[in-house]
Fold this protein.
Amino acid sequence: MFMLLLTSAFIYQEYAYRVVRHDCFRLGERMEYRVHYGFINAGKAVMTIDPLIHTIHDRPSYKIEISGKSVGFFDMVTHIDDVWGSYVDTAAIVSQQFYQRIHEGKYKKKEVVEFDHPRGIAIAHRLDKETGDLQSKVEFPMPEDAQDMISGYYWMRTYDYDTIDPGDIFTITGFYDDTVYHVKMEFLGREKLKTKAGTFTTLVVSPMLPKNQFFSGKNPVRLWMSDDKYKIPLKVKADLFIGAVEIDIAMSNMSL
């Protein structure tokens, strides 16, 4: 037991986290979004960064949470009340812990995933859908600097888009739902975007998705971010075979 503890101590001591310097987001950040299908309001979403720094695995971390709820007619058809959260390392901008509470119609899921970067494993804690009690714990190998779905996006806000040209591709390595993903993101360039908050010059990026039965056309999912140091997400659009779903910013306490 002593040798095991000693070996673990050496592993943690020798592991060197990367350092990502940025001033793209800050404590207390809050953004609200409207989700719509055509002219129909379908839902609302909120993205927040807790005003306090949290310590996870002895590392200072941002607590970032995204919640999404269905509204109106869509809520009557399929009730959605989802929460995703991430503790993002303040220096390395990688996930230290990810959690989700999913309620979509009759489907429910609760899970917490620990990202053990020194040992290169992700530990998924499956929780009871109702009580939240631990049901099982499973370990998975993961690559260096693995992200969850939230930390990967916030790392993308730190990326220097002045160093790439339209059509260039960068990769985000992530772990979600027991699987490692290498998501290729294509930089589509800069566009003017008109929103309720005004008209902005934006950076446009798109995940490169395999052809499937849900999405339509080239670059079916696009994200518009403000072309400034904050890179605030202003709009997401997904072109589906049955129409388009759009997420537009409604309010932000950051400068727009």
